[in-house]
Amino acid sequence: MSRLAKRTDQVMPFYAVEIFKQASALNAQGRDIISLGIGEPDFTAPAQVVETLNRAAAAGLSGYTSPAGLPALREAIAHYYQQQFGATVDPSRVIVTSGASGALLLAAMALINPGDEVLMSDPSYPANQNFIMGAGGVPRLVPSSAEQRFQLSAQDVRRHWGPATAGVLVASPSNPTGTTIEHDELRELVSEVRQRGGFVIMDEIYLGLYYGDTPRSALAIDDDIIIINSFSKYFHMTGWRLGWMIAPQDMVPAIEKLAASLAICAPSLAQHAALTCFEPEVMRVYDQRRLSFKQRRDYLLPQLERIGLHVPVVPDGAFYIYADISRYSQDSDDFVHRLLHEAGVATVPGRDFGPAHAAHSIRLSYSTGLDRLKEAVERMEGFLARA
């Protein structure tokens, strides 16, 4: 066998997927497993979107698009950002990608040189580290506390920025915590990075699933932030592999050049179908579903506290809860394994998201129906009574 590249040893494993495999195997054996692990909405694309896909396929619209995506879709995304998040975006700055993963790949390839450090909060989504390493960079996890909402702060930038630091990668709302960065804190963080000549990549994948009054994009603070977003979560199109990035105007030619080689284009039928996502009738469906996620969150939070799983920071977005299990265990791997095999409830151990809180934290996803969440709580309560 040929010798593998060293980076294959450096790639961070994704334990949520491993738990999903175990849960699937138990399901295949006839066990009833309630999944609070994988971050995939139980909703799928609305019927109108599927109908548009079928019409596009029947019309033969499956050929390549331009590397940056369909012009009409780029315009629709720009309009969506203006209408929903108060950010004025020129459609020429929108690059349609093969999921948010494709956008992160392009951003990393365009911005990171070998040896560059990128600051990220601990906890954070593990796959993001792999995009940085794939471009030759070095992800540097900065432990964050509940007091700072488990988010990177301006003080962190001042304290941890070094000669090799090139920028920061931030997510708001975040996976695994569901927390957002307060707008004033984000403004200060961006200012600190700009003073040092660095870049800001902002993951806004869950921005549509915000439960406060008015969600605001980071673009409202600084027009040169690189935005990553996706049709997977808010638009419930996980397997369609469609996302986008919004790049500063002077980056667009380089991004398009990279996109043409690395992906040619995002899936064309998915692009045609995605145009329907922004129709008023369909947007009303998405908002109703957002409220369903909020209802699930509002049910789970007091129930988890009642059974002794403390939630240090109330999530205000996404569909995740980052819970403290220290009342019962200081080994989240063992806790998650036992919870799955003894109670039939799948969750994710803390080590998936960084070492700072790994031993005593787990992530729960409420991307499943309220009836199943109620049953999951009953099972967990019984399990914890035996713990």
TrEMBL record:
Cofactor: pyridoxal 5'-phosphate
Similarity comment: Belongs to the class-I pyridoxal-phosphate-dependent aminotransferase family.
Organism: Pusillimonas noertemannii
Name of protein: Aspartate/methionine/tyrosine aminotransferase
Domain Aminotransferase class I/classII large: residue ranges: 32-379
Record keywords: Aminotransferase, Pyridoxal phosphate, Transferase
PANTHER family referenced in this protein's UniProt entry, alphabetically: AMINOTRANSFERASE, ASPARTATE AMINOTRANSFERASE
Keyword Transferase: yes
Molecular-function GO terms, alphabetical: pyridoxal phosphate binding; transaminase activity
Gene Ontology process terms (BP): amino acid metabolic process
Pfam families per record: Aminotran_1_2
